[in-house]
Amino acid sequence: MKYILVTGGVISGIGKGIIASSIGTILKSCGLRVTAIKIDPYINIDAGTFSPYEHGEVFVLNDGGEVDLDLGNYERFLDINLYKDNNITTGKIYQHVINKERHGDYLGKTVQVVPHITDAVQEWVMNQAKVPVDDDRKEPQICVIELGGTIGDIEGMPFVEAFRQFQFKAKRENFCNIHVSLVPQPNATGEQKTKPTQNSVRALRGLGLSPDLIVCRSAKPIEMAVKEKISMFCHVEPEQVIFIHDVSSTYRVPILLEEQGIIKYFKQRLNLPIDDQPSDLLMKWKKMACRYERLLKVCSIALVGKYTKLSDCYASVFKALEHSALAINYKLDLMYIDSTELERSTEAENSVKYHQAWHKLCKADGILVPGGFGIRGTEGKLQAISWARTKKKPFLGVCLGMQLAVVEFARNCLNWKDANSTEFDPDTKNPVVIDMPEHNPGDMGGTMRLGKRRTVFKTENSVLRKLYGDEMFVEERHRHRYEVNPELTHCFEEKGLKFVGHDTEGNRMEIIELENHPYFVGVQFHPEFSSRPMKPSPPYLGLLLAATGTLSAYLQRGCKLSP
């Protein structure tokens, strides 16, 4: 097993996740089996209870793990399926060690950060690196490990110490450290500054890890003189300094790395049994990147949510839309609309914001209402759903988006004016969305219906079934506490809102479709989590096809994309 540790310096959010994913993609293109581990030094057991504004979206895995969004990057880039144990947190490690201490595994010993916590980290990494993540179920050959945060953070120290020890345990030919740093370019001088990188590498070396590669992030391409300066002051060869400037799309990053000789370096440094040249997989990435940059036709989608100030809050949704747009040769114009700005209360407080939000919504080719929690912004989402339904605008509702589509239909088509979800109004007389009985509302962490579940189509006359290739069932990832009230579904079906998919027992409503509408679909699951660059998610693809007016032609072709 070969281990590649990716650390970061200067600032967090520098792109370590994309770089780690891109390195994995390059090695996979050379015919190697690659897995990935993300280490988050926070004390939370998992990411499930975070606000999206803290660390971006919560990504859900097949096994129900609620994890950091970087695991989503790994899955999309490498086309693998990871597990909850591929995300290590300080909380998980300490819980593991404390449980062993209570069990008596350390009887007679003082349990300390070194060696007990550091040993637990190393043991976890070695065990998880062996777990198969590809469809062929073979053991991986390379494990890419990303250490979150920046070097020097207090909470990250035990992990840095663990890897300082681990480099000797794994042996030099099996362990490689890549340090990602920022090269800022102040506007005042326009000069690219290397001092932050020098200080960051010095701090890393002071903790016992020497970088084998320094990946420099910058806004613009870095000059050769800067490369030579970093090489001289950071004790590495010039070819060990890699530049990644801001690019038009993340699809370009693996190509930039490959162009700077990273395959040849890894082959020599880790003694890998590979050719110097990548295979067809990287050629596909090159073609995809070139196609992405040449797109001329534009499709605009309005994303109506409440976490719109930070794009990472809907990272997987954005990627799923982008994959679908690319598949049909359209450039995606994603307009983020804060749902509270569509509400009447905003018109009274700030009429300019209100009218700007509605202007965006009205000019969009399609409307998407993603998942979420809490009552804030729900009335604005209901307004957007009503607009999509009455004006025949293509619409996709995901999780809460589907539940609110049911609430909107109940209020405006069934005339149940107080229809609501028990999440927002526990005393409503028409509870069209109810909490699931088997889940304990006392504990918030890990108590939802999580992970991959089967959804069975109950009719052949379903647009989503056709988009999924006319399969009898699909398996998608879930994350919800509430569900559509199964006792009231017949009232909706009589008026044309069809529940075309349900769970294996037939009790839980999973997919809605509205009759006599170009595309009005809601899904209880999160299809964005399984979307891949070369395998777009069918519900999102359907939205893009409907928004560009090509859905019926696509269905007539037997769900084949035009060349």
Task: Indicate the CATH class of the largest domain.
Answer: Alpha Beta
Largest sheet: 9 strands, mixed
Count of structural domains: 2
Separation of termini?
A: 41 Å
The number of helical elements comes to 20
State the strand order across the main sheet.
11-10-12-13-21-20-19-16-17
CATH topology annotation of the largest domain: Rossmann fold
> CATH superfamily membership of the largest domain, which one?
P-loop containing nucleotide triphosphate hydrolases
Q: Provide mean pLDDT, rounded.
A: 90
Question: How many distinct beta strands?
Answer: 21
Question: Which helices and strands appear, and what pairs or packs with what?
Answer:
Elements lengths: L1 E7 L7 H14 L4 E7 L11 H4 L3 E2 L5 E2 L2 H9 L8 E3 H14 L9 H17 L12 E6 L9 H14 L4 E8 L12 H12 L6 E6 L5 H10 L7 E5 L7 H7 L2 H8 L10 H15 L3 E8 L9 H13 L3 E8 L5 H6 L1 H13 L2 E4 L8 H13 L4 E4 L1 H13 L7 E2 L9 E5 L13 E9 L5 H5 L5 E8 L1 E3 L4 H6 L2 E6 L6 E6 L5 E4 L14 H10 L3 H6 L7
Parallel strand pairs: 1-6, 1-7, 2-5, 2-6, 7-8, 8-9, 10-11, 10-12, 12-13, 13-21, 14-15
Antiparallel strand pairs: 3-4, 15-18, 16-17, 16-19, 19-20, 20-21
Helix pairs in contact: 1-3, 1-9, 4-5, 5-6, 12-19, 15-16
